[in-house]
Design goal:
With 137 residues, the protein is mainly beta. It has a single domain, classed as Neuraminidase (6 Propeller), CATH 2.120.10.30. Helix content is 0%, strand content 50%.
């Protein structure tokens, strides 16, 4: 059985653009804990991040301003994804759960608790009708 290792940010994520000799910081996210996972909206306007400290935040990708915090997971957040039509955010956590929020309001829509170990990844199927989650179980 193979393991999938994810990148972890030891410092606040910073997004930069280089043009010629000049590098310009586009934004820096002031995340509270170590960032475990991130996802961009397909149009690049929003970022969602999940941390070791159980926090989930939605950010303006252009300014780095936190727009909202989402409540739910009780363990580190291992994976994040936006539904491409901008309506939902999904996370997979170390507490064996998958959480779904309304991306515009931050209201929890549901949580799924079918796993018996850490949820390591979440994705939407291309037809956008189902969520697939991968776990250590």
């Amino acid at each position: 059985m193979s393991k999938i290792w994810k990148s972890q940010f030891l410092h606040d994520p910073s997004f930069k653009h280089t043009k010629g000799d000049q590098t310009v910081a586009l934004s820096t996210l002031q995340q509270k804990g170590l960032v475990k996972s991130m996802a961009f909206l397909p149009d690049g306007t929003r970022i969602v991040s999940g941390s070791y400290d159980q926090s989930v935040q939605v950010w303006d990708a252009l300014t780095g301003v936190e727009l909202t915090g989402l409540n739910g997971p009780t363990s580190m957040v291992n994976s994040m994804v936006f539904l491409p039509d901008r309506t939902c955010i999904v996370s997979g956590s170390g507490d064996q759960s998958v959480w779904v929020w309304d991306a515009l309001t931050g209201v929890k829509l549901t949580s799924l608790n079918a796993h018996t170990s850490w949820v390591n990844s979440v994705v939407f199927l291309p037809d956008r009708t189902r969520i697939v989650s991968g776990s250590s179980d």
